[in-house]
Amino acid sequence: MSPLFFLMLYTVIANGDSISMSPVASPSPSPRPLLISPTSPAYPPMAEDENNAPAPSPSYPPVDISQGIKAAYWPSFNGLDPSSIDTSYFTHIYYAFLPLDPVSFKLNVTPFHQEMIPEFIATLRSRNPPAKVLLSIGGADPNQTYYFSIMSTTNQTRAVFINSTIEVGRKYGFDGLDLDWEFPANDQEMINFALLLEEWQQALVDEAATSGKPHLLLTSAVYYSSMFTTYGVPRSYPVKAMNNFLDWINPMCYDYHGSWQNFTGPNAALFDPYSNLSTTHGVGSWIEAGVPPEKIVMGLPLYGRTWKLKDPNVSGIGAEAVGVGPGDGVLSYSEIVEFNSENKGTVYFDGESVSYYSVVGDSWVGYDDTMSVYWKIRFARSQGLGGYFFWAIGQDNDWTMSRLASNSWDYK
Q1: Which element (helix H / strand E) includes 168?
Q2: Which end of the chain is more exposed for a tag (fewer CB within 10 A), N or C?
Q3: d(C-alpha 275, C-alpha 43), whole Å
Q4: pLDDT of residue 377
């Protein structure tokens, strides 16, 4: 492990919880060979997030993080039976996704979801321990992004949407609601986003008072950073409204690099000395913007990004690529384990970014494994974050990463 990694990690955690730097604090390494990467070539000029200022290092009062949120999104379309979910590793599980209807602005509960949701909730409630279940709305579909932008423009359309979410949430017995709007595109949409949260929270308060039922949680999946320098015009999230009206936020700390670029890079780097595409920068930006750390639930990917190398002999992070790799650019963690095993892949742990990559011929896979997830969880604890979530449950390999994250969070 590189000295730079230890220096950077020590800097991050020095004022957080007292993490031992002795070897006993680390998890057992993967049975596959862990090689220190040779010196990586410099990253090519970044096409996005070119402001290379260091990640903010805010100070804040210590908070009690003895308990936390251990969450995961469950895509209803992925085929994983709810009865297969081991709830001992999770406190909250998100049902993903219900779409917004573009005409009525109500949730579109299709016959598929009408059948799937009751089974999902009943199964998770019957487990020991039971997990709280939240309904996630929207997702990465560009159509949904557009529908949100239209729905949020007036109080009338916002009210229709809000009332529909509460009706569906109560009908099926969800514990909360989650907005996955990817992403508000400009300052006006950010203003509408804030108005939506304010009106939504007030409706939840009123409904709970009227029904006598527990107040539904309200959360939101958000961009990894509080500020955008990509995907349109520069803009920032309405942090004051988010603090006032959301129970917590889920920054999606992944997809920093992918096959849309012509060079390899970590899918979810903890550190990046060359750009702001890192989890330390993203989480730091939210805290610097004023979000209390305990309201930040950090995202972790259970998948990796793949490329086809231009030259198999030049295979470090930042190596030139000429297209997508295995899995059409994406492999789940379980598929990566199988791919590396079947092809005798050479596995590297990169201490600079705190990430893994493997190389098989001209195939390059960037992903998280045991050591990188361990240090990310310890980073989250050191910063007093409220917890973490995975995208997505069902992509793990026999619960390896879910178990490791849960145990690492509980480690004192």
Answers
A1: helix 155-172
A2: C
A3: 9
A4: 98
pLDDT in tens, 334-371: 999 999 999 999 999 999 999 999 999 999 999 999 99
Is residue 52 very low, low, confident or very high in pLDDT (cuts 50, 70, 90)? very low
Least confident segment among 22-26, 302-306, 328-332, 389-393: 22-26
Burial 296-311, CB ≥16 within 10 A → b, else e: bbbbbbbbbbbbbbee
| Length reported for the chain | 412
Nearest to 287 by CA among 251, 258, 256, 312: 251
Residue 141 reports pLDDT greater than 90: yes
| Strand ranges for 302-360 from DSSP E | 303-309, 321-324, 330-332, 346-350, 355-360
Q: For the chain, how many helices (H) and strands (E)?
A: 10, 17
Q: Are strands 235-236 and 248-251 parallel, antiparallel or unpaired?
A: unpaired
| The token pair that represents 382 in the structure block | 């050191």
SS3 content of the chain, % helix, strand, coil (to 5): 35, 20, 40
- Residue ranges of E strands in 80-141: 92-98, 132-139
Active site residues: 182
Higher pLDDT, 309 or 59: 309
| 158 HSE (CA, 13 A, CB side) | 20
CATH code of the domain made up of 69-301+368-410: 3.20.20.80
Cβ atoms of 293 and 385 within 8 Å: the answer is yes
Beta-bridge partners for 364? 307, 359
CA distance 319 to 39: 11
Buried b (16+ CB within 10 A) or exposed e, 205-226: eebeeeeeeeebbbbbbbbbbb
What whole-number distance in Å separates Cα of residue 258 and Cα of residue 137?
25
Identify whether 392 is preceded by a cis peptide bond (ω within 30 of 0). Answer: yes
pLDDT, position 229: 82
Compute the average pLDDT of residues 368-395: 97
Instruction: Count the Cβ atoms, other than its own, within 10 Å of residue 385.
Output: 27
